[in-house]
Amino acid sequence: MPVEIAVPMMMANAVPAAAARTRNVAIVLYDGVELLDFAGPGEVFAAAGHAGASRGLPAFRVYTVSRSKAPITSQNFVRVLPEFSIDEVPRPDLIVIPGGAAESLMDDPKFLAWTTAAAGNAEIAMTVCTGAMALGRAGLLDGHAVTISRRITRSSTPASTRRAASCNWPACTPLQAVSMMR
């Protein structure tokens, strides 16, 4: 009597479906942050979160985080209320450090320490424009090629320039932007 064994067929290139998971995207806010530098990435991740939803779960949960939950001022005219403080924020899987007056982030030891730890533990850490200066000061860009506008390094205060001096800043055109992925 023959024995029949049922073996499920799989396509050669089939990849098992990953469990649906929502990744946390932290947008770092600080006084003087550039509006476009945080709002642009926030909008992109929010839209991608809905477009990439799986099994009813969004691909991304986008939130803002700052030193405290007190309002910050972007570009001296837009007040923004962060959703989380660094003391209570969920662990970010992705972290976005926007540009602007990054000295307010870099000159705050507690805020810089949180940003350094969060960026170091995230799946992806990315910066926009002068946000790279914070990761440079933290040493997270050492050994990485970084592109930044010459206007930023030329207009930086001597203290800001010294903080980022350990990075390898290649020459570039003034219109190139900054990003770093882990």
Summarize the structure.
By secondary structure, the chain is of the alpha/beta class.
What is the approximate shape? globular
Instruction: Give the beta-strand count.
Output: 7
Strand content: 15-25%
Quote the CATH topology: Rossmann fold
Number of helices: 6
CATH architecture assignment name: 3-Layer(aba) Sandwich
**Low confidence ranges:** 3-16, 154-182
Features:
182 residues; alpha/beta; Rossmann fold; 5-stranded parallel beta sheet; two-stranded antiparallel sheet; 6 helices; 7 strands; globular; disordered N terminus; disordered C terminus
Account of the protein in words:
It is a single chain. Strands 5-2-1-6-7 form a 5-stranded parallel β-sheet. It has a two-stranded antiparallel ribbon with strand order 3-4. It has one domain (23-163): 3-Layer(aba) Sandwich (Rossmann fold). 30% of the residues lie in helices and 16% in strands. The protein contains 6 helices and 7 strands. The chain has 182 residues and is an alpha/beta fold. The model is unreliable at 3-16 and 154-182 (pLDDT under 50).
